[in-house]
Task: inverse folding
């Protein structure tokens, strides 16, 4: 079988256990192309992809364009629904939505998607985002009209203040109109 050599560890003094013999530290690490190792790596890759597919399958999308499924699938969401008026109603799979979770979703789920793919994001024609808890009773609403994501993305901006200015608290499953 072909063999590949990896650079040796050098001196044992940088943190390897004291039981490590000096002669072993100066020997190169030997890696072989073992068919069993190759099969195990392929099996591990399959399991990882299957697990990510199962995690992705848990989100229910309604009227959301296919290219936008992936950006919205990384936030423990239950459902994502886009109305014709540009209202994105998102229900999380968490018992409560804190301000930190809400702000992170707005910045990393909404604005980061707009920064990375502005033409794809433009297909949503988004005006408002409602993020609710698992029971769809409590949460927050964000006014997404205008260039708010561009303002948030500028260096030196107080992101929390910008998000708070455009947000309202939702209770009893109803979100009041924007301020």
Result:
């Amino acid at each position: 079988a072909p063999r590949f050599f990896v650079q040796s560890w050098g001196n044992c003094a940088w943190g390897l256990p004291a039981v490590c013999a000096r002669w072993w530290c100066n020997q190169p690490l030997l890696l072989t192309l073992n068919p069993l190792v190759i099969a195990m790596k392929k099996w591990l890759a399959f399991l990882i992809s299957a697990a990510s597919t199962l995690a992705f399958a848990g989100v229910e999308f309604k009227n959301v364009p296919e290219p936008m499924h992936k950006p919205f699938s990384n936030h423990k969401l239950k459902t994502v629904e886009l109305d014709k008026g540009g209202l994105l109603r998102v229900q999380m799979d968490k018992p409560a939505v804190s301000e930190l979770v809400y702000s992170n979703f707005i910045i990393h789920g909404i604005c980061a998607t707009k920064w990375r793919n502005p033409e794809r994001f433009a297909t949503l024609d988004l005006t408002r985002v409602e993020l609710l808890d698992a029971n769809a009773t409590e949460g927050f609403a964000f006014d997404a009209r205008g260039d708010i994501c561009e303002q948030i993305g500028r260096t030196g901006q107080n992101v929390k203040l910008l998000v708070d200015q455009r947000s309202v608290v939702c209770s009893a499953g109803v979100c009041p109109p924007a301020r």
